[in-house]
Amino acid sequence: MRYELYYWDGIQGRGEFVRLALEETGAAYVDVARTMGGEDRMLALMDQRGLAWPPFAPPFLRAGRLLIGQTANILLFLGDRHGLAPKREGGRLWTHQLQLTLADLVVEAHDTHHPIASSLYYEDQKREAKQRASDFIAHRLPKFLSYFERVLGCNPDGPEHLVGSRLTYADLSLFQVLGGLQYAFPKAMTRLARRHRHVMALCTRVASRKRIAAYLASRRRLAFNEQGIFRHYPELDP
Length: 238
What we know:
The protein is an alpha+beta fold and 238 residues long. The chain folds into two domains: 2-82, Glutaredoxin; 89-209, Glutathione S-transferase Yfyf (Class Pi), Chain A, domain 2 (Up-down Bundle). Helix content is 53%, strand content 7%.
């Protein structure tokens, strides 16, 4: 099966979590919005009348007759189909739970530079952004990182993975979040890395996986930039 991934061109965003899963498994897929006329096709599909299960917003994935929306939901599907989640129900739910927690962290990271409204420019809310980022760095970011450090340390199969003894999509997603945080808050992450060695080691292991390493070195991997979820504004990372 050749998947169709629908997400905005030019940014990693939430679509990158899906890309990493597809790249790791070697699945055939097309990044629709990065093809000629692809973004228009995506918008037309979102507005199409008569769809039984219309997507609210990108990312969404076409898999045969299925049209699956929401990042965590897409990964739940791909994890089961491509061996990126445990086979037992408890393990699948635990992996999904970790993904949802990462989604919460992504929202909070985004809101450091857009604390009032996404419809406003960053320049329209710089003062509020500085306050939000300061609290995020001081309180929320350490709390999330400490949680995932504890999850890795409590894994009965060892701290190499979040769940069990094999890679799951939760590992890939934690890698992506860490990369984004290192881009957005390099000073804060340098300080915090010393206290979260399992988390940082997982990031290194994922980056060294054969298919992931090839993807990161390819033109398919978009760079972090100031249009995406994770943005580097030096004034927010003193």
